[in-house]
Amino acid sequence: MGGDHAPKEIVAGALRASEELGVKVLLVGDPQQIKAVMPPKTTLERVEIVPAEEAIAMDEEPLNAVRRKRKASINVAMDLVKNQQADAVFSAGHSGAAMAAALLRLGRLPGIDRPAIGTVFPTIMAGKPVLILDVGANVDCRPKFLEQFAMMGSIYSQYVLGTDTPKVGLLNIGEEDTKGNEQALRAHQLLRDNSLINFVGNAEGRDVLSGEFDVIVCDGFVGNVLLKFAESLGGVILQILREELPQGLHGQIGTALLKPNLKRIKQRMDHAEHGGALLLGVAGVCFIGHGSSQAPSIFSAIRMAKEAVDNQVLERLHSQYEILQRGSG
């Protein structure tokens, strides 16, 4: 029930995922509203509607709303994961409410002080994405939180994104070890001293999309600004391409010839291709989507959630209990 285009686009993306990915999808919310946006001949073989009496609005204070509205759709969805009736949860609604519900219903993983929202960015190297975390869960971070983010991000990068030995960077204002504020300096020391992290140094803003790093850690304030900027940049470039392509008959012929290339460019730059961001550090697979998410984004998020489950990301994090404990010290 969450998101600017709910429930129509949420349902459309979920139905596509059930057909193309072979997953069973539980649609949590108001049954009447959900059924009203379903195509007439929808088969419910892999789709189930789970009733929820309430929903949390974007203008509500997340923690209070989650506690007050016990039967809100986000709480019902989290309980499905907690009770092992679902393997993962996705929400395009209030991200703060999703995080609060995850913490209250699922709890944190052992050794983790703060969960982090990790999102995948494309880079100039085709097929080589970079994972950025945190992009909004923690506005203020202690250095040890950043160390924990690096640990979790490395595991996700290795087992879901397929990176053999993830190279970790710390987002900073310079590549030199002595650059940055007190938080950055202390975090740099922790990352450098942790032999279980392949820390390769500071990453400046221009390095984020260079492909030189597989995981980049930062606090949620900086990460969220970076996320919103990167998303708008992709849209700007695509719009410029549309405007600058030649007009007239020659332009139409040229555009037709370039269409496959333009489609690939869009796929590499469009945030809808990545769908959502994983909430790492909670005891369940939880993906958070944009409020503006439409059907393609929903489909992509469910695909990513399936990959996280198939690759046993949560179990691998559990198995790293001692490592994570050491990382949080």
From TrEMBL:
Reactions this protein catalyses: a fatty acyl-[ACP] + phosphate = an acyl phosphate + holo-[ACP]
Enzyme kind, highest EC tier: transferase
NCBIfam families xrefs: plsX
Location relative to the cell: Cytoplasm
A GO MF label: phosphate:acyl-[acyl carrier protein] acyltransferase activity
Keyword set, alphabetical order: Acyltransferase, Cytoplasm, Lipid biosynthesis, Lipid metabolism, Phospholipid biosynthesis, Phospholipid metabolism, Transferase
EC number annotated for this UniProt entry: 2.3.1.274
One GO-annotated biological process of the protein: fatty acid biosynthetic process
InterPro entries on file: FA_synthesis, Phospholipid_synth_PlsX-like
Family: Belongs to the PlsX family.
Quaternary assembly: Homodimer. Probably interacts with PlsY.
GO cellular component, one term: cytoplasm
Pathway: Lipid metabolism; phospholipid metabolism
Function: Catalyzes the reversible formation of acyl-phosphate (acyl-PO(4)) from acyl-[acyl-carrier-protein] (acyl-ACP). This enzyme utilizes acyl-ACP as fatty acyl donor, but not acyl-CoA.
Primary residence: cytoplasm
Protein name in UniProt: Phosphate acyltransferase
